[in-house]
Amino acid sequence: xxxxxxxxxxxxxxxxxxxxxxxxxxxxxxxxxxxxxxxxxxxxxxxxxxxxxxxx
Length: 56
What we know:
The chain is an all-beta fold. It has strands at residues 3-8, 11-16, 24-28, 34-37, 43-45, 52-55.
């Protein structure tokens, strides 16, 4: 993961760089389960079958 170091009021803060969403809908490619979850990236793991979920 990439990070960015910022100096604010004399202190260094480490911030991750990436796309953070409030929560998006994901659909499993294996079983068709559709749920809303918060994930960094476009892929997640299905809690029902362990398959790959994609952002829709």
